[in-house]
Amino acid sequence: MKTARSLLAFLLVSLAASAAAQDWPSKPVKIIVPFPPGQATDTLARLVAEKLTTALGQPFIIDNRPGAGGVLGTEVAKNSAPDGYTLVMAPISSFAINVALQPKLPYDPLKDFAPIANIGLTPQVIMANPKAGITSIKDLVAKAKAKPGELFFASSGNGSASHLAMESLQLAAGIKLTHVPFKGNSDAFAQVMGGQIPIISDAVPGAVPQVKGGKLVALGVASLQRSPYLPDVPTVAEQGYPGFEVVGWIGIAAPAKVPAPILDRLNAEIRKALEQPDVKEKLTAASFVTAGGSRAEFTEFIRAEIARWTKVVKEANVKTD
Predict the structure, then answer these.
(1) Cα(53)–Cα(2) distance, rounded to whole angstroms?
(2) Who contacts 13 (Cβ-Cβ below 8 Å, separation ≥6)?
(3) I need a surface site. Which of 17, 37, 85, 90 has the fewest CB within 10 A?
């Protein structure tokens, strides 16, 4: 009898969820962006919101909630009702790197959220000041081994993707560099372009203008294939470090317990959107490569990324500010 009651309860809950999903969306949907307007996460959020608004017939509204490196907005999303009317952008920083860096993070990306879809990918590019006499990863490693700890690199902050990219290279190559963190990319780039610090890493969108403008030299792209935006720049893997990869990503998620039919519908519509020529064009303009894939694939991808960055942070003894 108990088993029968449990089965009946399960069926009733399933039917209720299915009915709710059929009516969804019946009002505007909010997409929380845990970063300020104008940043890459915001750009991709607005691109997706526009397409979902058209496809699903209700406004998808951007709600920027910056603060604490993405933690603030992500926590707001975690505490939202799991009804499909609040979504959150899920970039590498708040859904993987923060987990590795912050033991007391107020959310768990895989327990408190349901990943929906990965949207765009962009690898790191390791660069040098043209006057540094470094034109390849081989040059960088040779100089670092000749004078351990005497070669400096700038980053946009402790625990940033640009910082962890260089820590990953040090671990892979067995070298020791000295890290100089700044409060954001602008100051870090200014120091490297001014010649005070020789090395920096940044994602493709930030790297391309500096490299194509001749202000910095690209030493290597941290993806397994060459970037279509810097096709003449070899990957780090090509230069003696097989499998070396540091790729940023931006996806979208919902609070845990949102009905699966809603999540499936969102995934399907986002994947359709990513195949549309105008979306591809806008992603290209932002120097991103289209991601896509199923909900399960994105979930496992996040799991693997958390494991990867937890290992790097531990082995490199990375500390936040």
Answers:
(1) 44
(2) none
(3) 37
Q: Compute the chain's Rg from CA coordinates.
A: 21
Give tens-digit pLDDT for 188-200: 999 999 999 999 9
Residue-range definition of the domain harbouring residue 74? 27-121+248-316
Write out the E strands in the chain. Answer: 29-33, 60-64, 86-91, 113-128, 152-155, 178-181, 199-203, 217-221, 247-255, 289-292
Residue 218 belongs to some domain of the structure: yes
User: What value does the mean pLDDT of the chain take?
Assistant: 93
- The string of pLDDT tens digits covering residues 268-301 is 999 999 999 999 999 999 999 999 999 999 999 9
What pLDDT is attached to residue 17?
53
- CA–CA distances in Å: residue 219 to residues 41, 177, 216, 264: 26, 16, 9, 41
Q: What is the mean pLDDT of residues 103-124?
A: 97
13, part of any domain: no
How is residue 134 written in tokens? 């470094």
Which of 239, 267, 294 is where one domain is finished?
A: 239
Please give the single-letter amino acid code of residue 1.
Answer: M
- Report d(CA 160, CA 59) in Å as an integer: 33
Given pLDDT bands bounded at 50, 70 and 90, which one contains residue 9? very low
| Whether pTM exceeds 0.85 | yes
Alpha-carbon gap, residue 290 to 118, rounded angstroms: 9
Q: Tell me if residue 109 falls in helix, strand or coil.
A: coil
Do residue 254 and residue 235 come from a single domain?
A: no
